[in-house]
Amino acid sequence: MLLVGASLALVFVKSVVVVILAQGVLVAGGVGVSMVFTRLLHDSLPSGVSALSSSAFVHFALLFGVMSQHVGVFHAGWMVVGVALLAGTLLVTVDVDRDFI
Q1: Do the Cβ atoms of 74 and 81 come closer than 8 Å?
Q2: The pLDDT value given to residue 96
Q3: Distance set, CA 91 to CA 16, 28, 40, 67 (Å)
Q4: Nearest to 3 by CA among 101, 16, 12, 24
Q5: Backbone angles phi, psi at 33, to 5 degrees
Q6: What percent of the chain has pLDDT over 90?
Q7: Where are the domains of the chain?
Q8: CA distance 28 to 12
Q9: Which of 84, 85, 66, 86 is nearest to 76 (CA)?
């Protein structure tokens, strides 16, 4: 929920201090979620899938850059909100299904 709140702050709040704090929360949370999913990935899938996840990040970053140039960074920020919601949902699903955390 903290990641979703921070991503929503990037979309709605125009204060520099709040945006910087929200970015810090997203980076820290992103690293934590990445560690959990990386462990799951390496435990259950062949190594070729790991390269696919890195490729997905690069494509997301490029798409975010293009969208922010054409429609503005605040509209492109909805992509971050969507990813935060998806990651949170997947993390809860994995936790409930596998008793992982």
Answers
A1: no
A2: 64
A3: 30, 16, 11, 27
A4: 24
A5: -65, -40
A6: 31
A7: 2-98
A8: 20
A9: 66
- Copy the structure tokens of residue 71: 């429609």
Q: Is the pLDDT of residue 101 over 60?
A: no
**Under a CB-based contact definition with an 8 Å cutoff, are residues 8 and 34 in contact?**
no
**Spatial distance between the Cα atoms of 19 and 51, rounded to a whole number of angstroms:** 31
Report pTM. 0.55
Which helix (H) or strand (E) element contains residue 95? Answer: helix 73-98
5-53 pLDDT, tens digit per residue, is 898 998 899 899 999 999 999 999 888 888 887 777 667 666 665 667 6
Q: How far apart are CA 19 and CA 23, in angstroms?
A: 6
8 A C-beta contact, residue 59 and residue 79: no
Structure tokens at 75: 């509209």
Predicted confidence (pLDDT) at residue 67 exceeds the cutoff of 90? yes
